[in-house]
């Protein structure tokens, strides 16, 4: 009987493995290029139609409650680009309940010697949200062109806001996946935070009542990744009295939110491993 | 067979216990009830052995398999697999085992078998040369040549199972856990899987833990069977021993060209069935050895043919479960 050799390994870094898995998922998605093109174009058109609604309001009234079309376009662009990035990365968490928990294939994932978060990120690098991304980016740039007082520092703050917003939405998707361990059903509620968040993020904070304002500032840091950095970039004073500089740092709250959701995820996985359900 | 050196154990299980808490009626506020899935089981498997792990549905098999695979934490008890505690060092543990769940795929539906194996290479961190060697060896032994470039979605069940087994071995695990590896396969595929597992154990010293409802898998492969029922170990012995203690009887079938004659049978043999041209006699070889019985009936008038058989492994195991109310 030959001696079992200790397996020499060439452990790929997390990023290297992510690239490989993402690459494989792109190959799989492009296996049906026609379907992909229709979905991406559909994604572009439906999100663009949403913006036409806003645009026609401003065309009719000029400005609404002190907000000009440029500022609103920047808000709209920011939140959509950020959400598109999160949708692209977080598909594995979005489908977690149906494709992993209900079918039991989460057990299969646990049998792989890698972090569960990494494996789920690698589930799919989704190309379809490119429609929303391009459309959001287009509206964002148009907004910057239309807005009256764009700050040069916007060049730095807006990418940070997009990253913070993407981190926040990814956090929501991870939280949603963690919730699947408790209940696979009834997760429509969480869509309030994703699609609802995108809707709410498109409007200035002053449009909402006090309760909702607090929620999207302190619970889901939507205002921190969208509203404040937009005000900072456009040098627009906050009607609610927050100093403008806050917007240059507040996107970091999106990363903090993601961090909390990652902790919750680890707790949820540990709970699953000890209960087996 | 006695080994010249004590073989170290690949798997050691001591007093393993697992209870689940379930809610009555499934509501949020309902009363909770405790279900005992494993009630203190102990066994060990030496390196290089193929151990069958069987039991009726709900006996606790899958709970035990999940704990050994590191995806479930027990309520109490000790487990060491390759010297590691599965649930405390999941990542290090799963890197050294291979698991095939007959009913779930570990490959990617939308990728080809070859692409899936390459992705597993990177997940497990297998060196390129070693990967190339293993891939070639597995492709040859499991006859994967023509399906390597097909997407997993298009494979037949038998082809998929061969690909699954290759996928579970690409990183040279020391231990292979097979959960229903032949379920739903046609006869040639079953034989191919069995032959492969047998060679794997012989040539690579891989330890195999096999759970199955197909007793022919056990008969063909397992040097030893661990029978589990109601969360306890009911038997742990070579299969032959189980046969002797459970259902040692043999069956003698006699064919006649006329009506079978009335017989006076020696002690230990009874007539169990009579048909227009045949007789079935069941006997206990410890009371009446087969040659003596054959000599006794051999000169009967009109006898055309005779056959001796043993109860099938399915009959034995059914009897065993019945005897233990499992």
UniProtKB/TrEMBL annotation, chain A:
Keyword match Zinc-finger: no
InterPro entries for the chain: ABC-2_transporter-like
Segments traversing the membrane: 36-58, 64-86, 153-174, 215-232, 244-265
This protein's UniProt keywords: Membrane, Transmembrane, Transmembrane helix
Pfam annotation, one family: ABC2_membrane_6
Keyword Membrane in annotation: yes
Top-level taxon of the source organism: Bacteria
Protein's UniProt name: Transporter
Organism: Gluconobacter albidus
Automatic annotation (TrEMBL), chain B:
Keyword Mitochondrion among UniProt keywords: no
Coiled coil: none
InterPro entries in the cross-refs: AAA+_ATPase, ABC_transporter-like_ATP-bd, ABC_transporter-like_CS, ABC_transporter_ATP-binding, P-loop_NTPase
One Pfam match: ABC_tran
Record-annotated ABC transporter domain positions: 11-255
Keyword annotations: ATP-binding, Nucleotide-binding, Transport
Gene Ontology molecular-function annotations: ATP binding; ATP hydrolysis activity
Protein name: ABC transporter
Gene source species: Gluconobacter albidus
